[in-house]
Amino acid sequence: MSAATAAAPVNVEQTGRRVEEVLDRLTASGDPAAASAAEELVRSLMDFYGAGLARILHLLSSAPGEPSARLLGDDLVAGLLVLHDLHPEDRDTRIARALDSVRDHTLEVRDFEESSGTLRVRARAGGGCGCGSGGDARQAAEAALACFAPEVRAVEVESAPVGPTLLQIGTAPTGAR
Q1: How far apart are CA 7 and CA 24, in angstroms?
Q2: Topology of domain 89-159, CATH
């Protein structure tokens, strides 16, 4: 847990008043676009956190098993934990979990450069038939990493060497022999 999350508890009443004061100041500024954008931002954040809290309650009250495993397996809840530096898994574990969730691509971590936030991955051909996995592996990886590893600011994908392509052999249509 970071120093920020170990700080004194937040007073809910004071925080609510502070949000109202900021919104009132923006409204009084005479810029209706800024006031409207601020209100929309607050609504969006409230929706996000509300959905996360509802999901936490649902996950804790549903299927048997380790509650923390259920919580960490949920994208929304895990994203909230990462956002507040509360996620119990280290960066490398979160990166591996995110890349495992990428569909249609098998991605293997090659290197992470902390100073630039660049993650280098290798895309392996899917299916064992020599055909590529299709789609854009970089975009898929970036989307998966966005919530779970904000330290990753860029993804570079290298293709794995492709071996010989296997020829698909089927049966001949009836009467073709």
Answers
A1: 28
A2: GMP Synthetase; Chain A, domain 3 (3.30.300)
Specify whether the CB–CB gap between 5 and 88 falls below 8 A.
no
Helix axes 137-148, 91-100, angle to 10 degrees: 130
pLDDT tens readout for residues 89-140: 899 999 998 898 888 888 999 999 999 999 999 987 654 444 444 448 888 8
Taking the mean position of all CA atoms in its chain, how far away is CA 84?
A: 14
Separation of alpha carbons 102 and 96, rounded Å: 10
Q: Read off the pTM.
A: 0.58
**Alpha helix stretches (DSSP H) within the chain:** 12-28, 32-61, 67-72, 75-83, 91-100, 137-148
Residue 143 tokens, joined: 């989307």
DSSP secondary-structure letter at 14?
A: H
User: Does residue 129 come out as left (phi exceeding 0), alpha (psi in the -120 to 50 range) or beta?
Assistant: alpha
Every domain of the chain and the residues it spans? 12-72, 89-159
pLDDT digits (tens, 9 = 90+) for 35-56: 899 999 988 988 888 888 888 8
Residue 148: count other Cβ atoms within 10 Å of its Cβ: 25
